From TrEMBL, chain A:
It comes from Salinicola acroporae. It comes from the Bacteria. Keywords: Membrane, Transmembrane, Transmembrane helix. Residues 15-434 form the DUF112 domain. Pfam families: TctA. InterPro entries: DUF112_TM (IPR002823). The keyword Membrane applies. This is DUF112 domain-containing protein. The chain crosses the membrane at residues 6-29, 41-64, 109-130, 136-155, 162-182, 188-208, 251-274, 358-376, 397-427, 439-459.
């Protein structure tokens, strides 16, 4: 066992460092959603043949780093770093108005550090507890996905509209698959990319239409005020336990453990709920602001780790919103990683890594993220936020993503692949905007199309 | 390239110049696709397995995406006005009013653990909290005047 661990160590270390550096930088770009950034890059890492341990540390170090640096635009610019940062906007804005945005930033990142360290061992233990049910779960996967999809749809912003829209959406996917199969093309990644990047695709179509373009006219550039930052410790590496007081540390650990166990729920919802639970127990309003921020950002880390790792370790099936979204390429990245539709047979990191490897490399990834993202965002937050908002235009970000759509679409299925990415993105983007049929529900819809529909038609 | 205010649009949650957007789509598309196709052609001469050659070509294509994005970032400046904020502490009492109205507070600064209190002191906020709590003692925190809420109140709601 030790030999196997050591043999993969250099790859795991190298990929973890790359993941941490790349996603520390991406986290600084406000509004860079996790699914649109983590999923395609992880997919790439899988497809160029990086060994399993490297794929795993790349993903985990990336996700953990991103959820630290996303606090920078959230606290200093007052715009959410990504989807997971939105529940922290209210408290962060108050601290900004009080003139202490750096406190908001440091409480958030330090909460994240502590929670990420706790979450990996808790998650591994919980996955071991659930593992005996793995066979049953794999066997009944097609139906479990149906139930999970209905539940996730109901708890999405669209409620019943999202539940009912699952039918037509699944039909669109099945129809597209039948069409491409008729031309000998089998697509997987193109669907993921289309769903993940749907909001951009639908927005680009919208501004082409004259009526909608008129509505989107702005008469001046967006205005942001960048708050000042004050350093209050010596040296390069701050101690998170000194940034948080003992009660904040306690609550952060407690909520990290709880949110590691609730891996099937929406990560944003868990972040909101855990924050409310703690907030109502803190008496003074200032203490409440800072504690809520530490706890909420802690939960963004722990819930992401748990939602990716528990389904991966215990079942090998993407049975959680994170597993079906940003972590999807760890489960399903044909031709290398596959989930077989009929039998529920899986061939992915679930089979390729053992328990010890999940634990050791998981901790390695978290530690790498801490060593890179934590001191970086504590020391250079203001300069980084200033650089990104002054030098990286939104046009450049859109140009990069459109390039990604073209390359991945054409790479996987030629012109047909590209058309599928655009079709899925357009339909999904509109459903998300108009009905609240969000990206998580769309990913579940995709799995119903590839797992549940074949199983049901086999019965008929 | 200069932006023009009459071409500004909101796309994907931020502001862009319509012409710059078209430029970015063309540059981003051309550079990434060009790199991908060129890499596939070149690698095809050295790697015998065409599927592997294609996968590595995809890696170059993705690098092409980033290069395209960098060219766009160089050509097109951000449409953001970034103001270096010096927080006006004059309105601190207004912010506190909005904060207390929004969250409510049980107990005052005196009841806080010493660690939290000294943190407030270091941030030079202790005095402001004490003043606010003295002026709004005994549960009349709800009885806010329009003046108290002021700008901070509206911003608090907006956030």
């Amino acid at each position: 066992m030790m030999d196997a661990l050591l043999a993969q160590l250099p790859v795991a270390l190298g990929m973890g460092i790359i993941g941490a550096v790349v996603f520390s930088a991406i986290g600084l770009i406000s509004g860079s959603d996790e699914t649109t950034t983590i999923a395609p890059l992880t997919l790439l890492v899988v497809l160029i043949g990086v060994p399993p341990a490297g794929v795993y540390t790349f993903f985990l170090a990336g996700a953990v780093s991103k959820h630290m640096t996303h606090a920078v635009p959230t606290a200093l610019l007052g715009i959410p770093g990504d989807t997971m940062a939105t529940p922290m906007m209210r408290e962060a804005n108050y601290l900004r108005q009080l003139g202490v945005p750096h406190i908001a930033l440091r409480k958030m990142i330090s909460g994240g550090v502590i929670a990420a360290l706790i979450a990996v061992p808790v998650t591994v233990v919980f996955a071991l507890v659930l593992a005996p049910f793995g066979g049953f779960v794999q066997h009944s996967a097609p139906y479990l996905f149906l139930i999970a999809a209905l539940a996730i749809a109901y708890f999405s912003p669209g409620r019943w509209a999202a539940v009912l829209a699952l039918g037509p959406f699944v039909l669109v996917i099945v129809a597209l698959q039948t069409l491409t199969a008729a031309h000998g093309v089998k697509l997987g990644v193109s669907y993921f990319l289309g769903i993940a990047i749907g909001p951009l695709i639908s927005d680009l179509f919208l501004v082409l239409s004259p009526a909608e373009r008129a509505r989107r006219k702005r008469d001046r550039p967006a205005r942001f005020s960048l708050a000042p930052d004050v350093k209050r410790w010596r040296g390069y590496f701050p101690n998170p336990l000194k940034v948080l007081d003992s009660r904040q540390t306690g609550w952060t650990i407690g909520t990290a453990v709880v949110s590691s166990l609730t891996f099937v729920f929406s990560p944003v919802a868990m972040t909101v709920i855990m924050g409310e639970v703690v907030s109502s127990r803190i008496r003074h309003v200032y203490h409440r602001l800072t504690t809520t921020l530490a706890v909420r950002n802690g939960v963004t880390e722990s819930t992401y780790i748990a939602e990716a790792l528990i389904p991966l370790m215990a079942f090998g099936l993407p049975l959680s919103p994170v597993a079906a979204g940003p972590a999807a390429p760890l489960f399903n990245a044909p031709p290398r990683f596959t989930v077989d539709s009929a039998s529920g047979q899986v061939n992915n990191l679930h089979n390729l890594l053992g328990t010890w490897e999940f634990l050791v490399y998981g901790l390695l990834a978290v530690v790498l993220a801490l060593l890179i993202a934590y001191p970086f965002s504590m020391n250079y937050a203001r300069r980084a936020a200033s650089f990104v908002s002054r030098n990286i235009s939104h046009e450049a970000i859109i140009g990069t993503f459109v390039g990604l759509i073209l390359v991945i679409g054409l790479w996987e299925g030629g012109l047909l692949g590209l058309l599928v990415v655009v079709t899925v993105g357009l339909v999904g983007g509109f459903l998300s905007r108009l009905l609240g049929f969000n990206i998580g529900v769309q990913f579940m819809g995709f799995y119903i199309a590839v797992l549940t529909v074949p199983a049901l038609t086999a019965l008929l | 390239m200069a932006m023009r205010n009459d071409r500004l649009l909101e796309v994907w949650n931020d502001t862009v110049d319509g012409h710059h957007l078209i430029g970015s789509l063309l540059i981003g598309g051309a550079v990434s696709l060009g790199t991908f196709q060129a890499a596939e052609w070149l690698l095809g001469m050295f790697i015998s397995d065409p599927r592997m050659a294609r996968t590595y070509a995809m890696l170059f294509g993705i690098i092409g995406c980033v290069v395209g994005g960098a060219i766009c970032a160089y050509l097109f400046r951000p449409k953001r006005e970034v103001v270096e904020d010096t927080v006006d502490t004059e309105n601190l009492q207004g912010v506190l009013a909005a904060l207390y109205a929004d969250y409510g507070s049980r107990g005052g600064v005196e009841d806080l653990p010493e660690a939290v209190r000294s943190e407030l002191r270091e941030l030079e906020l202790e005095e402001a909290f004490l003043v606010y709590e003295r002026d709004h003692a005994q549960g009349d925190a709800v009885a806010l005047t329009e003046h108290d809420l002021g700008r901070a109140g509206r911003e608090g709601v907006k956030s």
